[in-house]
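Thread: sanity check for a docking pose with pyridoxal-5'-phosphate

Original post by kr_44:
Hi all, I'm comparing my docking run against an independent structure prediction. Below are the sequence and the ligand SMILES. Could someone generate the full complex and paste the structure tokens? I mainly care about where the ligand ends up relative to the chain.
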Amino acid sequence: MTRIYNFSAGPSMLPAAVLEQARDELCEWHGTGMSVMEMSHRSKDYVSIAERAESNLRDLLAIPSGYKVLFLQGGATGQFAAIPMNLLRGKSTTCYVNTGIWSKKAISEAKRFSTVKLSASAEAENFLTIPARSSWEVDPEAAYLHYTTNETIGGVEFQEIPDAGGLPLVADMSSNILSRPLDVSRFGLIYAGAQKNMGPAGITVVIVRDDLIGETLPGTPSIFDYRQQADNGSMLNTPPTYPWYLLGLVLEWLKGQGGLAAIEAVNLRKSAKLYSAIDQSPFYSNPVDVACRSRMNIPFKITDTDLEKTFIAEAKSAGLANLEGHRSVGGFRASIYNAMPESGVDALIAFMAEFERKHG
Ligand SMILES: *Cc1c(COP(=O)(O)O)cnc(C)c1O
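Reply from moderator J.T.:
Ran it for you. Here is the predicted complex with pyridoxal-5'-phosphate included:
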């Protein structure tokens, strides 16, 4: 078996130890005579798997009591709609911060249910920076303030939690959840699709403050109703049992790494060395404001765009895959989530230096 370094933005690398454990347990889980995939979601065995994943997530993120943790389907995109359906609570206005492509998608979905006020936008700056908090306009009558903590495509990440101006703060953390310690108490709702930094595709985590749920928009489908899902342990219908189990294995792996403070130190080291390699070279460049560069998704370019195809092909032969930039921005992008070993970043930096030597 040859595992390559996979820089895909998502679905993305999983820790090798997790895949090996899943392989070992694939056909028979813990002497039950069956695979996790074949278990009833109501069985004692499966419920223990599900509950353990939740309690590990609560531990890792130090989630205070007074928050529900939901395991849902429909991806972060499903939540773009579920959030206004659940959190409007009789109001008609919502506030959104626009820092890139994922913010824009959240905004366009929210417009189907509410009057969206743009509190701030970096569109005029080509999404290369984050507007200073002092310039944001937050409507005190709005139901909540939404932002995207890490723009997966643009490579722009908030380094601090913004002041929500008294509104419940709602955050799309799909591409940086669990990459660093987090003060969950600052948020009304946090959501994330698993397939970037938490597990496989097919499961979405929602962490929501108790007092915000229970007053859904008329017509809200039951599966998107946080109150109903919370009352049913996220098993209002059959949940994605296998992704939930794999997510649990990733959380256990993360605990074994020393938790979020320890993984943050690794993430800081990995991203700092890659940015430094880019910045020190006249051949490569990253245009993002240094103060808000992402630790997870690092876009970069070369001046001679004719060389892009050669770069991708040679990288692939060197065991470095999926470095193409998003189709909307071109260039390259290295996604280096928790599961990307530091040796993968080192191999990329060495490859880039060699490519520059040959073609620069
Ligand atoms: C990938 C991504 C999404 C979309 O996730 P789906 O699970 O495909 O709906 C939303 N927001 C961010 C920040 C993402 O990176």
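The chain has two domains: 17-256, 259-359. Hope that helps with the comparison, let us know if your pose agrees.
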